[in-house]
Here is the input.
Amino acid sequence: MALGIDVHNFTEKFVSERFAQLDLYRRFDAEFLEDLACIVLNKLPVHYIRYDVDMYSYMKDEDKVALKQKVEQAVDESIEFLFDEKQMKFSRDEKAE
Here is the structure.
């Protein structure tokens, strides 16, 4: 559901930055990245905001570091999960033939 207002999840910014650090935008197709983003974001705390500057001024530096660490862990775990899931699907498809 689109609310039609400018509200977003602040955590998405950190996820996008991690994707860029790992060069995932180049290495994977849009479908994989969309699946990955959903899995990652569901593992992380949600912070809906209107303006990033509000959250930046509210968060302590140690909270930002902690959130970035959570994002890194969630991305790593989610990539591993998706690879395992895709491998299992590939194995099931091979057996069906």
User: Anything to note?
Assistant: Residues 16 and 52 are 14 Å apart (CA to CA). The helical segments are 11-21, 24-27, 30-43, 52-58, 61-96. The chain is about 75% helix and 5% strand. The radius of gyration is 16 Å.
